[in-house]
Design goal:
By secondary structure, this protein is of the alpha+beta class. It is about 45% helix and about 20% strand. The protein has a three-stranded mixed sheet. About 0% of the residues are buried. This is Type II toxin-antitoxin system prevent-host-death family antitoxin. InterPro entries: YefM-like_sf. Belongs to the phD/YefM antitoxin family.
Length: about 70
């Protein structure tokens, strides 16, 4: 869902409740400026974000973290 910053200000409670079920993108002057989302990690999305960062079988967790941070 996409809403304007003004709409968010006028109906904050409504959108906070909705954020537990879906992501809400906030726009200002037609540009996305923020995303209101559920704090519980979506495991599928988390896995998708990790796909492709480990290039070898002998990669340590620290190597993965460094590479992930370098690509941000």
């Amino acid at each position: 869902m996409q809403i304007t910053a003004t709409e968010l200000k006028m109906n904050m409670g409504k959108y906070l409740s909705m954020a537990s079920r879906q992501d809400i993108f906030i726009t200002k002057n037609g540009q996305r400026i923020a995303k209101l989302t559920n704090p519980s990690p979506d495991r599928v999305a988390m896995l998708d974000s990790l796909v492709g960062i480990a290039k070898a079988e002998n990669v340590s967790l620290e190597d993965i973290k460094r590479e992930r941070l370098a690509n941000v």
